């Protein structure tokens, strides 16, 4: 049975805490319900928004269609070989719960991605990443339902066309599929990713030396770092990084570095450098600033915040102003990482 509701507040379903409304709303808990959805006229006729944890979107108006909240649960090991364990998770599984399940069972590869808000089904869409690891490194395949035909289709790694905060689901496949489950390939023998400076420092502060390293220790360190920098959406509305870190040419980087010697940058190819957007925004004086109840987080300038009761338009206004400042000062265009609806 499907329980289609109308005029539902989305406030508790987006981590910015924006009080937008859905014209129609349905929650999907099982694959059976997902199949039934294709017999519902509201579903076939209306514009659709597939919602996971609502942790990477900004509502700037009410949604005049059907919001499909994906809540399919379930984590199971589907296969094992000498080196790997394959773990399948329903689209609605909370991402951090999945990470904890893997860490507790000694399945390595996800530990650097601890405490990222959101659901498993949404994770491949922007190839979530943090502290030197991206989901594509452990992704095996996913199952998705074609919105037009209702048929299930498998996407393997190559078909997802992963990039930095990118996948096919943000481009050609955008709005065409509902991801129902994702299968990951975890390692029995861990490969520790501790190159990210903050991880090494935090492990040291936790008194963990290199020979004591475990995936649990890395997960704990990442949790500590995230808690110290990123606002908890339950307390301050936010969607993590609002913008992507921009990539610029090495020539442009050298030119800017001459004027701003402290500007950080990481090579991403022979000719390109990635610059932390948080640094650029901070240099423009935005860190900790707000306009009304919409602003820039005081501990991490890449995170825009709803200090209470802001509208999506107010947050977007801050985003435009931040973009403008960065472009005026550095000639660099910031692109949002968050989906603006
Ligand atoms: N920085 C500043 N001021 C700030 C913030 C950052 O100067 O206010 C500079 C510092 O030089 C710092 C560098 O930026 O060393 C990097 O900062 P941080 O380690 O916080 O990472 P980030 O590049 O700002 C990215 C991801 C985060 C992820 C972290 C850790 C993007 C868009 N964001 O942020 O992902 O957690 O790295 O790997 O790539 C998210 O996507 O929502 C997210 C939180």
UniProtKB/TrEMBL annotation:
Its cofactor is FAD. PROSITE patterns: FAD_PCMH. It catalyses: UDP-N-acetyl-alpha-D-muramate + NADP(+) = UDP-N-acetyl-3-O-(1-carboxyvinyl)-alpha-D-glucosamine + NADPH + H(+). One of its GO terms (molecular function) is FAD binding. Gene3D superfamilies: 3.30.465.10, UDP-N-acetylenolpyruvoylglucosamine reductase, C-terminal domain, Uridine Diphospho-n-acetylenolpyruvylglucosamine Reductase, domain 2. Its EC number is 1.3.1.98. GO terms for biological process: cell division; cell wall organization; peptidoglycan biosynthetic process; regulation of cell shape. Keywords: Cell cycle, Cell division, Cell shape, Cell wall biogenesis/degradation, Cytoplasm, FAD, Flavoprotein, NADP, Oxidoreductase, Peptidoglycan synthesis. InterPro entries: FAD-bd_PCMH, FAD-bd_PCMH-like_sf, FAD-bd_PCMH_sub1, FAD-bd_PCMH_sub2, MurB, MurB_C, MurB_C_sf, Oxid_FAD_bind_N. GO terms for cellular component: cytosol. Pathway: Cell wall biogenesis; peptidoglycan biosynthesis. It holds the Pfam family FAD_binding_4. It is found in: Cytoplasm. The active site is at 165, 241 (proton donor), 337. Residues 18-189 form the FAD-binding PCMH-type domain. NCBIfam families: murB, PRK00046.1, PRK13903.1. HAMAP family: MurB. Cell wall formation. Belongs to the MurB family. This is UDP-N-acetylenolpyruvoylglucosamine reductase. It comes from Larkinella knui. The lineage of its organism: Bacteria, Pseudomonadati, Bacteroidota, Cytophagia, Cytophagales.
């Amino acid at each position: 049975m499907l329980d289609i509701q109308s005029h539902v507040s989305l406030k508790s379903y987006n981590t910015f805490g924006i009080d937008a409304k859905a014209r129609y709303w349905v929650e999907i808990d099982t694959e059976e319900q997902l199949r039934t959805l294709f017999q519902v006229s509201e579903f076939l006729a209306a514009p659709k928004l597939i919602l996971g944890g609502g942790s990477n979107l900004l509502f700037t108006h009410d949604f005049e269609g059907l919001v499909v909240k994906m809540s399919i649960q379930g984590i199971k090991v589907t296969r094992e070989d000498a080196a790997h364990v394959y773990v399948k998770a329903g689209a609605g599984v909370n991402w951090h719960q999945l990470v904890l399940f893997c860490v507790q069972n000694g399945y390595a590869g996800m530990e650097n991605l601890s405490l990222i808000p959101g659901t498993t089904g949404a994770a491949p869409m922007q190839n979530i990443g943090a502290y030197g690891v991206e989901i594509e490194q452990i992704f095996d395949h996913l199952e998705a339902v074609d919105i037009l035909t209702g048929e299930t289709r498998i996407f393997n790694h190559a078909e997802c066309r992963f990039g930095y905060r990118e996948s096919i689901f943000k481009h050609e496949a955008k709005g065409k599929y509902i991801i129902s489950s994702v299968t990951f390939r975890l390692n029995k023998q861990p490969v520790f990713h501790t190159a990210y400076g903050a991880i090494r420092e935090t492990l040291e502060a936790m008194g963990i030396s290199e020979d004591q390293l475990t995936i649990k220790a890395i997960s704990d360190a990442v949790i500590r770092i995230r808690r110290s920098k990123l606002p908890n959406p339950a307390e301050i509305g936010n969607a993590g990084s609002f913008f992507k870190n921009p990539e610029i040419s090495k020539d442009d980087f050298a030119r800017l570095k001459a004027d701003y010697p402290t500007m950080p940058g990481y090579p991403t190819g022979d000719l390109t450098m990635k610059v932390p957007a948080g640094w650029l925004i901070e240099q423009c004086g935005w860190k900790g600033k707000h306009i009304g109840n919409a602003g820039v987080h005081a501990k991490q300038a890449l995170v825009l915040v709803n200090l209470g009761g802001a509208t999506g338009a107010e947050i977007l206004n801050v985003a435009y102003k931040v973009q403008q400042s960065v472009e005026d000062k550095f000639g660099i265009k910031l692109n949002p990482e968050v989906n603006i609806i």
